[in-house]
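--- STAGE predict ---
source: upstream dedup step, 1 unique chain passed
mode: sequence only
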Amino acid sequence: MNASPPLFANAMPDRNAPRFGVFVTPYNDPPRHAVELAKHAEQVGLDLVTFQDHPYQPRFHDTVALLAWTGAETERIRLASAVHVLPLRRPAVLAKQAATIDLLSGGRFELGLGAGGFWDAIEAMGGPRRTPGEAVAALDEAIDVIRGLWDTESRERLEAGGQHYRVSGAKRGPAPAHDMEIWVGAYGPKMMGLIGRKADGWLPSIGRVPFDELRERARQLDEAAVAAGRSPAEIRRIANLGLGESAFDPGRLADLIVALARELRFSTFTLATDDPAVIEAYATLVAPRARAEIGVNP
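--- STAGE serialize ---
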């Protein structure tokens, strides 16, 4: 995809090796809330920190700026958007922002994309209101635009997109520091087809759908990948784990992770929490136990 070898030997680890991270709320009061939690996650040994993207939420930082700042204040931990609200993020600009964060962080960023869902809030900020079919089509076009702009190996100016996003004669670049992955947060059957054809990762929030439905979505993803000539193993499965109303129980959480890994082939697990003590317990109690039971060394 990229024009030249990566500047940093920092590709995302093997898709089948379990990795553990945290899903931090990007609150802007106090201003350093999310940054300090990301630094804490790095210090206790987690692999990944992710931030949601809701530009219409006044209590949240802008996620692109937050990711860049966090990258500057960390050294090892990987970063990801989970996920960018595409109707308020033009893909041609987002491609350059993502590549910039990746270059400046030493190849530590992965790009999460979402089709949108809070349409009243999106429309209030000047974004489009899309039907489910339009949202899928727009995300499909956006992936082509983003990947095309990262492909600096081509000497031709980029022609990509369609009805929702179109670039015509755009100059390509910059390329990211590593072969950046595009993760899609979605649940619907049409989205599973898109992920199977084009994406590098599937990022659902566990608990929003019943386990049987999650199993069915995983099957649809596999079928779409095979139909597109891909191996389902090429697609990373990232589980965003919410505690909900339950108290943090390391044993039950480790059991859930093992079940997701064995039954549905999830390999990356981010815990939604803003509690430093829970973050540390997740890194020191849950992750080692889950790794041992899954049977893959870090």
